[in-house]
Amino acid sequence: MQIVLISGLSGSGKSIALNVLEDAAYYVVDNLPAVLLPQLVTHLRGAGWRRVAVAVDMRSGASIAALPNQVDALREAGHDLRFIFLEARDDALLARFSETRRRHPMAGEGVTVAEAIQRERDALAQIAELGHRIDTSDLHPNTLRAWVKDFIEIEASDGLTLMFQSFGFKYGIPLDADLVFDVRCLPNPHYDPALRPLTGRDEPVIEFLQKLPEVGKMAEDIRKFIGNWLPAYVRDNRSYLTVAIGCTGGQHRSVYLAEWLAARFRDQVRVIVRHRSAARRAADREAAAAQSARPVVSSAS
């Protein structure tokens, strides 16, 4: 049976992830106490279900402490279990709770939303290490939907998945990064008007960066570092290793290097590439286009 567990901070997008899985024909259960997970799996397998998605978080209280043991037991039983942990920066979560006016599940008398967020983050710290972390701070809902779809479509296999993620320092360092490399010291294509609207995946930008010796040296140094230490992460039984490559805006240098590095490691491990800031700009353009396409309704005086 394929089991997808969803956990994370309140307001980080768990409902969006569950909706994606429900649309993909998973049997979806929200807010399940962790201690009931084995019974649920047994029941649904007997009923003929082969794909199940379950959200387990702090709403189930202290029972979430049982989750690590339950995850190990289900994997040892031969299930294809995948774990997604969603998180976001405090400022992003505070803004979401303010916009929706929802009550934080850990807030109460004398406890502010900010304090509730920190309490929940502390309580879930160990749970976050169980699987694939996604920082949704600056993600458009459509981007999160796409990333969840990519995650469940990856062919199941033992071993480590290596993710290269480009980002812009102007938006903050991603919370889900395990290793962070700063490439802002490299020449910036942004200052060439012809290259400015392009990304590190476009051929003119690739040609510009490939001609620079310092870019090649930086890329090779990062490749050697990851190559030298990757076996240690594999021995540590890590399922995912996220390598974040950051430049100023996350559009040119970091995108180019993330793609370059991914190509060098695809023959060694399973590789995923994501471009945080590029996805953010694409979502903003889609939103702007949708807004401009709306008919203007005027009322007669």
From TrEMBL:
SUPFAM superfamilies documented for this protein: P-loop containing nucleoside triphosphate hydrolases
Keyword Iron-sulfur set for record: no
InterPro entries attached to this UniProt entry: P-loop_NTPase, RapZ-like, RapZ-like_N, RapZ_C
Domain RapZ-like N-terminal span(s) in chain numbering: 1-152
Positions of transmembrane segments: none
Binding site for GTP: D57, M58, R59, S60
Residues engaged in binding ATP: G8, L9, S10, G11, S12, G13, K14, S15
RapZ C-terminal domain: residues covered: 161-277
Keywords: ATP-binding, GTP-binding, Nucleotide-binding
GO function terms (MF aspect): ATP binding; GTP binding
UniProt xrefs under HAMAP family: RapZ_like
Name of the molecule in the record: RNase adaptor protein RapZ
Source organism per UniProt: Thauera humireducens
